[in-house]
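This protein record is not my work; I was only asked to verify it. Take the sequence as given and treat only the tokens as open to question. I have pasted the whole thing underneath without changing anything:
***
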Amino acid sequence: MNTRERETIQRYRKTFPNDTLKTISFKTGIQLTRVFRIMNGKPMKVSELEVFENILGQRLGQNKRIMEFENIVKLAALDLTVRDIETIISYIERKLENNKIIKQVVTNHISENLIA
């Protein structure tokens, strides 16, 4: 599975975290066994990748803030200085790292409660 395929699956899982394999199969029109293989890292056909990206695109259409963010990033890349862009990148990386730490703490807390 190449990087674009992996990123698309990760975005799909993040956007639809509660979708079962059956639900994904229904939404995409891809056979259940094929969805299982894709979710476990098998390479995708171009048509399968397009189906996942179309579903995500429809979801993005509903969430205009994400589209606005992408547009602002493109404008920033064209208009801002390298130093300004580095500052923004640093800020976003810190936010992502903080989010990752929070998720780990929550996951560990839930796991501890299940064991106890």
Notes: The radius of gyration is 18 Å. The mean pLDDT is 87. The chain has two domains: 3-68, 80-110.
